[in-house]
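Reviewers of the previous submission asked for a worked example of the structure-prediction workflow described in the proposal, so we include one complete record here. The input consisted solely of the amino acid sequence. No template or homolog information was supplied to the procedure at any stage.
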Amino acid sequence: MPKQIKGNPRRKPPEAEADHSAIDTWLGEIMPAMQPIVTSLDASIRAAIPHLHYAVKFHRAFYGVPEQGWVIEIAPYFKSVNILFLGGADFQPPPPLGTTGRTRYVKLTTVEDAQRPDLSAWITMSGGTPGWS
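From that input alone, the workflow returned the following structure tokens.
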């Protein structure tokens, strides 16, 4: 029987900021090839979910809603960007990747990937789904 992967209990949620300045700074520090994808995601998230809080921790951007906790995490890599929905297992249908806990994610490699209708629906769903707090 394979060993079940468990989250790190010492991993603490980031501290929330009401303004977007930490994300703006972080955007300038990520791989230049991934910046258009992340910028598109950031705009979609900000348009779909009101009253967001922002943070950068672990070299990743976090988006939260006061009553729901952190609901979206963006993780840019060298050749792709993962958008993690921290309550994504509760979505119908859930995002395709991830099997541990409630987090599900999508791997993106183009700006067109970031503008898919199913991704927009998951972003909207995340604003009303409890995340990580």
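The first strand starts at residue 53 and ends at 57. We consider this example representative of the routine output the project will generate in years two and three.
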